[in-house]
Amino acid sequence: MADVDRARLTVLAGPTAVGKGTVAAYVREQHPEVWISVSATTRRPRPGEVDGVHYHFVDDPTFDTMVAEGALLEWAVVHGAARYGTPRGPVEEVLAEGRPALLEIDLQGARQVRATMPEACFVFLAPPSWEELVRRLVGRGTEDAAERERRLATAREELAAEREFDVTITNTEIPVAAEELVALMWRGGPPD
To answer: What is the mean pLDDT of the chain?
Structure first.
């Protein structure tokens, strides 16, 4: 792995409901030259999510095996419930090809990646305000009241970690935030 060009790795993280997945989906649709990692998770799919596209939905024993075999670049328990992780193999393959790669992960995962790939670019996606973050979370309608409260408590902690990142992008509008992210990834020009 020593010869991998890690400079092309960008890690996008931020609080729950800030729009990380939506920004990544925009990049996926508008910028096919950017490879976006698909995380594995033990949580159940939300309506409209497709296995292998949005996440690799796996059961607990499968996730345990991935951890034991070192098949994950990073992993964490998120919101005190489900586990999420980044499969290592696809990331290493894309970086070895010299392609720009994007990891859209949570704060815990970003910290693990920083420990192993400190030369990556770490981008914090911030909400325009706390009130807007709460509105987005409630507006999704995918969590019950107890889960929303758990996620908001986590979001407060995640917002406090902004200073750990190299760059902050405020997600006021999805296309603007996504284009700012892609521009940051290409800073210095695209690869030959």
So the answer is: 87
* CB neighbourhood size of 169 (10 A): 21
Helices and strands per DSSP (H, E), number in the chain: 7, 9
CB atoms within 10 A of CB 129: 11
Q: In whole angstroms, give the CA distance from residue 53 to residue 58.
A: 13
Its sign, for the CA torsion 59, 152, 112, 168, is: positive
Tokens at residue 20, please? 């990380």
Residues paired with 188 in a beta bridge: none
pLDDT tens string 129-145: 998 888 877 777 667 78
Can you tell me which residue has the tokens 């200073």? 163
Helix 130-140 to helix 145-159 angle (10° resolution) is 150
Q: What is the pTM of this model?
A: 0.81
**Cα(111)–Cα(170) distance, rounded to whole angstroms?**
20
For 6-185, CATH number out of 3.40.50.300, 3.90.230.10, 3.20.110.10, 3.20.20.140 equals: 3.40.50.300
d(CA 166, CA 113): 13
Instruction: Give 173-190 pLDDT, tens digit per residue.
Output: 999 999 999 998 876 444
Q: Are 52 and 44 in contact (CB under 8 A)?
A: no
